[in-house]
Amino acid sequence: MASDTPPLYRQIADAIARQLAAGEYPPGSRLPSVRALAARHGVNTLTALAAYRHLEREQRVVARPRAGYYAALPVAGSRGGESSVPLPSPAALVDLSRRMSTLLQLADERIAVQLHMAEAAPALYPFAELGRRLQFALARQPELIGAQVPGPDQRRLMAALAALAVERGLALPADGILVTHGVTESISLALRHLTRPGDTVAVETPVYFGLLQQLEGLGLKALEIPCAPATGLSLEALEFALRHGPAVRCLVTVPSFQNPTGALMPDEQRRRLLAIARRHGLTVIEDDVFGDLHFGAQRPTPLKAWDRDGDVIYCASFTKSFAPSFRLGWMAAGRHHAALSLLCASSTLVCSPLLQSVLADVLESGDYARIRQRLRQQLQAQVQAFADAIEHHFPRGTRLLRPHGGLLLWVECPESCDTTRLLQRALAEGISFAPGMAFSAEPRFGHCLRISCGQPWTPVLEAAIARLGKLARTL
Ligand SMILES: Cc1ncc(COP(=O)(O)O)c(C=O)c1O
User: pLDDT exceeding 70 applies to what percent of the chain?
Assistant: First the structure.
């Protein structure tokens, strides 16, 4: 006769699920041993084990070899094995042309603690205020919805950007500025203008994997020049490569809060870099995507401020510092401006007039400084909390340099730690990060990893870092 009463192991599993939901066992905490659970419910250990196995399949608990069962980190969205799409394998990261896409796929709701993308939590941005400003712009100019060619708002924006540039020490004519869809598009335009397939481009190593993927897409070769977490690009290595290596068409560099190392190039070194570029006829593409996220009082001065000879194509953006979804950036390309305007017109025509109008409003009102300051303070506190936890939980011999801005931490584990394997293990427990081997075409950084500190610090993050540290120790 069929009974409505669930089997004993399900009743026990349901009881634990209720305790988990009530917060009796916080995420990452240890659950009673199988033996203790059996004794508590007056069943044999196999029944208790079946209860844990059931909860494990539901991703509510995690089994740790020889350590027992632990409360799982919360899974965002729906629970259980509903999705039949497998998570990407970290091994896919060896495929250069898919590196960026593979990491993007990790934004999967089955991964509860996502630390792999260089982005801040949406809640850190002033979305309510931006929503109001969007409504206001539309109420004032409903025709912006139908606009698709540059209008007066773009001129307003360019004047506001020229004023912003002055604050950074750059004297730019408003008509020398090009509005783009972020630094990604600016760099792509600059590379298309300066290079032909087969050319060599100097980049930092470790390097932002998005740039490697871009170079490969354009049929370009990357010449990787070491970048130190403290001071950035090695000028000695660059000069040596320029003297003795293959012909280099241009250099792409992130002098302020480099991705992934967070390095900040000192001013003196910036001047020397420009002198080297001049001597070798090298065009420098400056990626200043993180410059506005400085923790100290002073914003770093872009390389472009010292550029007397038009060797620097300056690329900046608001995607990290203001409104990621606007996808707005800008570039100042000096003597290359006319050619880049043509290329831009043929590839993307124009950036959204509506969003340009809102950005112009925010810059003109002076509110950008306030928005930025709040974000910078939050990121500084978060980076510090992550760094403290990593130093506490990761194995002895792990190295970490605390950056002066941005939202990334570059962690160098002991050489024996394979962070691609670590990622495989971490994904199974609902935690992601960017493994070191994504940041070079060569297998140089297999023991390193990049953690994004974009989310406000919580006990769940603390538990995730503790778990990563423990896994790293076992490797
Ligand atoms: C070094 C670097 N450059 C460029 C980008 C992308 O910039 P944007 O969003 O402005 O296209 C990123 C994104 O993480 C980055 O880390």
Answer: 93
